[in-house]
Amino acid sequence: MMIMYISLFSKKQLLYLSRKTLNYMKNIIKLTKFIHIFTHKIFGAFYCFM
User: Fold this and answer.
1) Please, where are the H alpha helices in 1-50?
2) Rounded to an integer, what distance in angstroms lies between the CA atom of residue 27 and that of residue 10?
3) Could you tell me which residues come within 8 angstroms of residue 6 by beta carbon, excluding any fewer than 6 positions away?
4) pTM above 0.70, yes or no
5) What local confidence, expressed as pLDDT, does residue 4 receive?
6) In whole angstroms, what is the distance from residue 30 CA to residue 37 CA?
7) What per-residue confidence (pLDDT) applies to 29?
8) How far apart are CA 25 and CA 12, in angstroms?
9) Which residues in the chain land under pLDDT 50?
10) Helix (H, G, I), strand (E, B) or coil at 1
11) What CA–CA distance (Å, rounded) separates 39 from 32?
12) Residue 19: its pLDDT value, please?
């Protein structure tokens, strides 16, 4: 009985952790895209001045 409960709990924990990591990865991707666009704009401005 106890082992069943523990396995169920660990499954829920794993699901929760995987969701958390997925959201984390999505946020990192968004951040990198934003930084990429931002740096492109800055470099574009520099090229215009040169």
Assistant:
1) 2-49
2) 25
3) none
4) no
5) 65
6) 11
7) 94
8) 20
9) none
10) coil
11) 10
12) 93
- The amino acid present at 47, given as its one-letter code, is Y
Q: What is the DSSP-derived secondary structure letter of residue 50?
A: -
Dist CA 4 CA 2 (whole Å): 5
| 11/4 Cα distance (integer angstroms) | 11
The count of other CB atoms within 10 Å of the CB of residue 15 is 10
Residue 19 tokens read as: 């969701």
- Please identify which residue in the block is written with the tokens 């090229």: 47
Q: What pLDDT is recorded for position 3?
A: 65
**Pair of tokens at residue 46:** 């520099």
Q: How many residues does the chain have?
A: 50
Tokens 């740096």 belong to: 39
